[in-house]
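Two proteins, back to back. First:
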Amino acid sequence: MKRRSMICMAILLFLTGCVPTLDRGEEEIIIVEETDEMEEQQFIITPTIDTPENFYRNVLDESGTYLRSQARGVVAHAMNNRIDINQFEVGLMEIASANFDQSEFYFREGSYLTGETINRWLRRFDPEDQRNTDGLNPPLAEGESDEDQMRENPLVLSNVLEHNYFYGSAEEGVNLGGVVVGLALRSVYYFRTEVVGDDGIVRYHFHEETLDLDEVEEQGKEIAQEVVERLRGMAEELREVPITVALYQEEPRGSIVPGSFIAMTQLGEGETMIGEWEAINEQFLFFPSRAARDAYPNQSNVFSQFKTEVEDFFGRSMGVVGKGRYKNDTLEELSIEFNLQSHGKAEIIALTQFISGRVSENFSSDVPVYVYVNSINGPESIIVQYPENEPHIHIYK
């Protein structure tokens, strides 16, 4: 199915997950706002923006408006923390780039899985309850109490995210080229039970169960097979296009670093049965921390030296934290954040200039480094250094 397209000046990239409606006090009931299914229409495409990140261009509607997923709406308690939601969304686009080249494909938020559909999928499977017959989470088994039943049968799947990728040109129109689906899996199961006291008052007891990550991954792969089969039967254009499925492992609630993708699989045109899974070796580490010291002592020492040099220059201690992203045990990206209490604008300028020099001296020129200088008044300056490029500095006025 072809759709006419033309070049339009615009750029926007907001990705949003979906949230479940669950029973038995396990999660709050969330209502996902729906939009009417769009009729056949023309589309336009955002222009190419030359950045080191090489973001996808976006498919817009004929008026130049960003096309939001029908599952877009309230994002609340589906995943344990906001940084997991962010990484889940952006990381899924990076996974897509392995199969859908940014120079040839255009991005659009998912247009097949509605909020209502995802809500049904995130429920517990129960063949006797019509609301839960599509549930992808395990059913409750026998148990002496609600707590026993929930603890022994945790809700593993927390979120489902769909991305669509189109190919074509301004002259010939665009067509669906593939679908990428992310399945977010819990590492800790948080739930609550109700107890009615002798006084008749209902009291809530809150619990958590740390999950076996190997078992969670296996369940995620089983869920992925069911998701692929359902997608193939949803629409004619989904029967033949390539489908990529990726598993995302969340971090516990309150974590200061996000989780990571742990496995992915690719199905070719018309394929329904998942074959091999490719393991993804990715992790985020916080500096300074014991985990970083144990895993990468040399880089941890470099960060500590950098922190000391900047504090000596500034003449006082300050909040300095770093977040390193590692793939296959190699640093891929480093973000550093400074938090100041009191300062003058001249101090900010001098500090930013000094930090820029120390970044070039201390950290590898092979990875992008992002430095954010903040104060109680908000952002003060930013330093971005890409491989084989001089640092870019911006000081907020």
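And the second protein:
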Amino acid sequence: MKGHMYIDGEWLDAVTGDYVEVVNPATLEVVGTFPSGSTEDVHLAVTAAHRAFPAWSRTTALERSNFLYRAYQILLERTNEIAQILTLEQGKPLTEAVGEVKFAAEYLRWYAEEAKRVYGDTIPASAANKRIMVIRQPVGVVAAITPWNFPAQMVTRKIAPALAAGCTVVVKPSEYTPLTACAIFQVFEAAGFPQGVVNLVLTNPGDAFGEAVLADRRVRKITFTGSARVGKYLMKGAADQVKRVSMELGGNAPFIVFDDADLDVAVEACIVSKFRNAGQTCVCANRVYVHESVFDMFTEKLVDKVTQLKVGNGLDESVEVGPVIHLDALQRIQAAVDDAVANGAEVVLGGTSVQPSALRGAFYAPTILTHVSNTMRICQDETFGPVAPLISFTSEEEVLRDSNAVDYGLAAYVFTSDFERAFRMGESLEYGIVGLNDPLPGVVQAPFGGWKSSGIGTEGGYFGMESFLEYKYMSISMSNRSVNR
């Protein structure tokens, strides 16, 4: 497969002519190439988006809605084709890839409807000959930077509300998963979006894109999902021109199991949360707190279930856990596990890389650790791998304190049959998303965003439109004669 950039309605190579290989993490084989753009390519894309903005922003809400709905229909039609590409370059099991593409389509459908709900206000004036109106208008050109762990879903979640609001966009996907983004943009092309409204720039590494959009005054909003380090760099740079920013910068989710929880339900939920996408989700369980009275039983049940998970190439329909994104990630996960063991943790399952079915990819065995303490690196940092550290706790106050004692606050999970406790915990946890007996709280109609170092702003639902719209207040003075009539 060969990817291209999509700028001003045309598929292009990089100005430099440079290409970079895309590697399948399950086999370490090259599955495609893509052009490695420079600041000059970014400039071309921003120019196209800036030129297209006046006309696109003046289209009716219904027109924008129709474009998004056509894209939704076409993306659904191409689900299996795009899911294959996604698994080849990202590694997740094909069933998960299919689910992701369908989820990506749902964002297009939701914002096709939300485009028609950008309302204004009339406000009572303080003088008889005045009228006050408040309208909403698009912020302008939006630069979107998307990650590799959800390469389809994150593209549509970021730009569907921008397009619905009347903004034009320039997207930079991860260098590890550019081909999925190319396939998504083929959908936009087929849906007939006007030239310059949607633009795709591919760069490796991503520094050229960040530097270019920060320096360009025509870019009025940056939306980013990725590391806290890069997010803080973008926020600092955006401050020089007071650009708007939305940042989703990772998490460190506590998964809390109380003694009155249904343990079978909690175990299944833990597996779904922790081992989906090989543990490479920003909302997955990173620390598993289990009440001391049920700790041994929970551990036994979890080990029994996790032992049965099949690791392998995501294209194999029987596989439940695919590879991690690359070999460097494999080494980082191993270093976190080794550090925990060196500080007293015990490996009860996994704890090492594996090579299933003679594959030579970046596979890490689903891992369970016990005798873990909150001070260990594996609890303080986001592991982003298939490792579940189990921590025993004695009281609600203790687990709440430990759960909140990290810099991140994206997602948290609580399993209990006590209705009052569920609400107490839900309201006291310092996280933007709380799953109460629910390991998969993410839906298109609800806000997705974190507290503290997990970022700023939200995506999803009608909340996701806010950061792409400006308020404009118009004070209208009329003559006394016209008022009297």
